[in-house]
Known about the structure:
Elements (H helix, E strand, L loop, with lengths): L1 E6 L8 E8 L2 E10 L4 E10 L2 E10 L4 E2 L12 E5 L13 H4 L1 E6 L7
Antiparallel strand pairs: 1-8, 2-3, 3-4, 4-5, 6-7, 7-8
Amino acid sequence: xxxxKISIPNLYEKPYTIQDVLLNNKVYYFEYxxxxxxxxxxxxxYILDNNIRTYILRNTCLTNGMHISKNIKYDNWVGDLYxxxxxxxxxxxxxxxxxxxxYILYRNGTLEVTT
Length: 115
C-alpha cells in the first residue's frame, strides 16, 4: 500500500488555485476555491484530454475526515483520497490554517494487517 500527502495550496493568498498532482502516472488537476459565504474550501478535480477538461469531481466542500474519492465519477480512478489533519485538536479549519494543518491523503492499494 502506498500513502502520499498532497499539500493544500495557500488559499489565503490565492482563494482560487489549480494544482497539478501526479497519481498513478497520470496528471490530475485539483481546483480549489475558498467560498467566503460558507467559510469553507471547495475542491474539483479534472483531467485534460486534448486540452478539454473532464471533471471527475465537482465543487465538493472539504470537511475534516472526509472520504473524497467516494464522490469521484471516473471509471479509471484508482485509490482513495481523504481530507485530514495530523493534529488531534483541529476539528475545523479556516482560510489561514488550512495550508499548514490539513492535507489530502492519497492511499493506493489495500491495507495489510498482520497479526
